[in-house]
Structure formats: structure tokens, C-alpha cells
Amino acid sequence: MIRVLIAAVAGAVVLFVWGTVSWTVLPWHTATLNTLPNEQTVVGALKAQLPHTGVYYFPACPADYDDTEAVEQWTARHKQGPIGLMFYQAQGAEPMPGSMFGVGFALDLIATFVMAWIVCLSSHHANTFLKRLGVATMLGILVAVFADLMLWNWMRAPAHYTLINAADHIVAATLAGIPIAAIIKPCAK
What we know:
Blueprint: H1 2-24, H2 39-49, E1 54-58, H3 68-80, E2 84-88, H4 98-122, H5 129-155, H6 159-183
Antiparallel strand pairs: 1-2
Helix pairs in contact: 1-4, 1-6, 4-5, 4-6, 5-6
């Protein structure tokens, strides 16, 4: 168990550093995020119409799918567009407070603990460094499919945004997997 904890901490450090590089040094994420044209006008309309923090999807789904007319109207609006999914926070907030970094590292640590535990459990069969690293990479692929590709399919996230985030998750898991695969050793038979 000590090796799993040490591996998780080492993996979390790598994951945290990678996240910093991925989001602040490499241009790939900023290339997928668009700014609002006429931001003040759009923000003013949002403030006037959306007083509560939440996740908003449009066009709104019909309240009753047995209501044929409502479903037809929704379908027509959906086909006409625009279609959107928006995370909205009504109140302002500090852009990047220190607590956000602390929570981010804690989440990285939870993720790498799960990864280290899975690598440990599979170490009897994944008995070489490259096989254990392969397990970590496969976990990154799993996250990319469950999170990024599902969002692309069901919520119509743009393909370029999806592919960059999926690649980021796979690279992150592989990099975090390096110290984990090096520290976790196969269990004795």
C-alpha cells in the first residue's frame, strides 16, 4: 500500500505539471475556445435572462414527450439551430484563486491513486514497466471515451475541441503513468 501511495503522489505531481503546461504553454486548448463577439451585449442579455447559476441547454427539450405538437416544435427549432450547452455562473469570481490549485492537486491525487491502485492490481499480468504504463495509458483512453467522446456524441461538442481534450487526457494519463509504472512492482506469486 505504501508503494501505491508513493506512486500516486509522484503521478499527481506529474499530472499537475502536465496540466499547467497543457493549458498555459501549449496553444492547443486556446485554439478550441472562442471568445464572444460583442461580449458586453451578450453578457448583458445573459444577466437579464439568467439570474441563476446552472447548466443550460437550448433549444429546451419538451416537458412532455407525449405532446406531439411540442415535440414537433422542438424538433424544428433543433434542426434550425443554434444548439448550445452552456455552463453559467451568475456571480463573478476570482479568476484563479489559490484554492483552485489546491483542489486541482487534490483531484489529481485522487485520480492517480485510482490509477496506481489499478496498475497495482494488474501488476501480476502487467509484469513489465511498459505493460504497466500501457495500463495507465488505457485508463487515459477510457477517460477520453467516457468524457470527451460522449460529450461530442450526445451534446455535439465540436470535433476539434473533443480531439484536443481527448488527446490531453491520454497524454496526461501516460505521463502520470510513468512514475506509477516505475514505482509499482509486480506482486510476488
